[in-house]
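Dear support,

I submitted the protein below through the web form. The confirmation email said the job was done, but the results page showed an empty box. After a refresh the structure appeared. I'm attaching both so you can tell me whether what I see now is the final result or a partial one.
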Amino acid sequence: MLTRCISGAILAVLALVFMYVGGPALAVVLLLTSLVAYKELTGALKVNNSEKRLCALEIIGMIGVVLYYLAVYFGDDTFRLMSIVGVFMAEMFCYVITFPKYRAEQVVAAIFSFLYAPVMLSFVYLTRNTEYGVYMVWLILLSSWVCDTCAYFVGVTIGKKRIFPVLSPKKSLEGCIGGVAGSAIVGGLYALLILQDNIPGDNIVWAVVFICAAGAIMSMVGDLAASAIKRNHEIKDYGKLIPGHGGIMDRFDSMIVTAPMIYFLCVLMIF
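What the results page shows now:
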């Protein structure tokens, strides 16, 4: 437990620092994190027939991750789209010329892994890089970490109705509601105390309340989806990189799915 707390605290501090600094530092950290998460996912989904070295499908995916983040960093939306479609075409090309080395499920899993972690996680940088990103990027943390904390304490205190008995037996309806409500309330306070004086708009507080509530819902979806994959493939953790937590996908599963939701809602309602 002590190891878990220490590593969790270190991760939290690093996340806060890099999200505040933004720029190249955040882009590099997200790139490296995405590469690790991609390998964890391809490992869990059995993309590689051999665990000793990277397979062709994984190499294509990792090259795609690097090219994608270059496009994200330089703000080239066309190249960003090209890199996503390019990974799909390259994986299909590899599948055809090496047939029958890889099964169709492995190719699909390689593409899925690229979209799931690297592409979704890049929205942390995209949010930070917007006009008011230095303020709005924190909504990602408010929606994921606050939701997780509030859901835990509400669930432990009054949780009775189990809504995912097979996938996540400890999650309760009361806990889920508490998590969403907690994120919305904390987000509203953040908007009232900080955002209202720094971002123009008459309805900024209510907009942030809605954004954080929606982000909290997606954070639970991200958590449950990552757990479902582990249960499908009978693994305990995605990796061993983070002491007491497992891998990148174990620790940042909710944030990965929350980031795009926050970005899109901010674009629609605030920016």
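Response: this is the final, complete result; the empty box was a page-load delay. Residues 23-128 form one domain.
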